[in-house]
Amino acid sequence: TDLAHIRNFSIVAHIDHGKSTLADRLIQETQTVALRDMKAQMLDSMDIERERGITIKANTVRIDYKAKNGELYVLNLIDTPGHVDFAYEVSRSMRAVEGSLLVVDSTQGVEAQTLANVYQALDADHEIVPVLNKIDLPASECEAVAAQIEDVIGLDASEAIQVSAKTGVGIIETLEAIVHRLPAPKGDVDAPLKAMLVDSWYDSYLGVVVLVRVIDGSMKKNDRITFMQNGTVHQIDRIGVFRPQMVNVERLGPGEIGFITASIKQVRDTRVGDTITSEKKGTAKPLPGFKPSQPVVFCGLFPVDSSEFEDMRDAIEKLALNDASFSYEMETSAALGFGFRCGFLGLLHLEVIRDRIEREYNIELITTAPSVVYHLYMKDGEQRELHNPADMPDLTYVDHVEEPRIKATILVPDDYLGDVLKLCQDRRGIQLDLTYAGSRAMVVYDLPLNEVVFDFYDRLKSVTKGYASFDYQVIGYREDNLVKMSILVNDEPVDALSMMVHRDRAEARGRAMVEKLKDLIPRHMFKIPIQAAIGGKVIARETLSALRKDVTAKCYGGDASRKRKLLDKQKAGKKKMRQFGKVDIPQEAFISALKMD
Ligand code: GTP
């Protein structure tokens, strides 16, 4: 196809504003897929994504559209992940296209995530077409939302398209806008091959599938290509496009988006953002902006049933094959036995992986408190990364500790602003900005990532009754007075509960934790001290009193089935407990104890 008849675009939207529904409509309207083949929400291929209503892997589809001017256009839609954890992946997908549809739910208005993704699109020099969706709903307020797009984002929304992805109103107008308002790609077919690796995943039949955007030159079957990041050479054995099912093509030229397979063994060998060129007479200059993905949140994952460790290793290795940004190494904990210390791009990423191990592999897990990566500056001049609070060296060897900070953007209705400010303040936040758009406030805070990874989002949702939206990016490392707090149960330190805290907050956090643990740990036949300590110094303490009688005692003389039930219940409870010295700690204690109320 000649460049003038190609349009490449992505759809930027907040969760639930209708991105997938609109994509389905565009596909349907152009009849890329016969109607009977249409599955609901075709672009979201993984179950877990559908269930959670989020899009994780970039997907893509090529559709043919005969415009009103009678000419035939090829439209390539790249579906970008909608979540902050995948900001880098989003930025790469954005660089692979020239324009975006900005979809805003006309009953809801602009949300924090919309903003973050629009900025990414603007960074990539996109032409942006605003689309007001859900105009079929009575609560739709197109004018107000258009005004908000202009106020908050600074985009001209006078020609926003009014759409109902549900009923199909405005779909043709959207297709026409893609053709006439978005620019055609540029590129030189005679230049050496330069293609961007936009995404890659493992397919059990085809092996690793690589999504590419050709910038210059062209690629075809049997070409030998180089991945410039690590210099590996592969021969293309399949080349094609998504309609959205895979269809082979002869070649891919400048401006085109498609896939290749090339007997690549693991997804790890393909890096998002890498430049692909030909082995001979390749380009000398890779595309700018490549960044290896770096896990920012770490936690320990342990099988509840230690006999499942090998199955778990298997599961983790399989998942890692398909996810270059997930890292793991074996970890042993005195209390939890064998498991893995895993690194993730963020909390959502963590949850997705954990859920997949539990559901797809049927292994119940204990998750230890998520921790961020700290930078330790040792007195002897050495610099280290700390991924696990349990590994924190004695403070006498440490000169200072730096922690990652984020810039958080929160959009919230006026009424809840006070609660949001208080929450951010409680989490050691520094206010950077506060502006209004209509009856909503936009708050920007500099916050320690550590204070956000655990339950910030849950708290934010609960103090604002679900009305706040939130987005963040990591902005760098800063020194602070951080110490390791250990938890001792019956005088035994429980590694999985140790955490890094700010010195000034340690007492309060320690007290809250031991109080919670006192409620979470069942009583035993003996007294159990529960303590929080920094170094050797105990900063909070509770004592769990001893059980006076056997739980079944009160049933003596009563009916036997009741007694049986009690015993069964105890037994079921046991399975989810872990022994720490002489004490059984239930699994949920590990997560619950760390939540701050
Ligand atoms: P994520 O994949 O989670 O990012 O969400 P999304 O932006 O893709 O939203 P999705 O297309 O899944 O739509 C969210 C909900 O809004 C679904 O229940 C849709 O049926 C509904 N919806 C989408 N477009 C319209 C519309 O034009 N009108 C109405 N009434 N509902 C719509």
Automatic annotation (TrEMBL):
Keywords: Cell membrane, Elongation factor, GTP-binding, Hydrolase, Membrane, Nucleotide-binding, Protein biosynthesis. It is found in: Cell membrane. PROSITE patterns: G_TR_1, G_TR_2. GO terms for cellular component: plasma membrane. GO terms for biological process: positive regulation of translation. It catalyses: GTP + H2O = GDP + phosphate + H(+). Pfam families: EFG_C, GTP_EFTU, GTP_EFTU_D2, LepA_C. It comes from the Bacteria. It is an enzyme of class 3 (hydrolase). GTP binds at D16, H17, G18, K19, S20, T21, N133, K134, I135, D136. Residues 4-186 form the Tr-type G domain. SUPFAM superfamilies: EF-G C-terminal domain-like, P-loop containing nucleoside triphosphate hydrolases, Translation proteins. Its EC number is 3.6.5.n1. GO terms for molecular function: GTP binding; GTPase activity; guanosine tetraphosphate binding; ribosome binding; translation elongation factor activity. Required for accurate and efficient protein synthesis under certain stress conditions. May act as a fidelity factor of the translation reaction, by catalyzing a one-codon backward translocation of tRNAs on improperly translocated ribosomes. Back-translocation proceeds from a post-translocation (POST) complex to a pre-translocation (PRE) complex, thus giving elongation factor G a second chance to translocate the tRNAs correctly. Binds to ribosomes in a GTP-dependent manner. Belongs to the TRAFAC class translation factor GTPase superfamily. Classic translation factor GTPase family. LepA subfamily. Belongs to the GTP-binding elongation factor family. LepA subfamily. PANTHER family: TRANSLATION FACTOR GUF1 HOMOLOG, CHLOROPLASTIC (PTHR43512:SF4), TRANSLATION FACTOR GUF1-RELATED (PTHR43512). This is Elongation factor 4. The lineage of its organism: Bacteria, Pseudomonadati, Pseudomonadota, Alphaproteobacteria, Rhodobacterales.
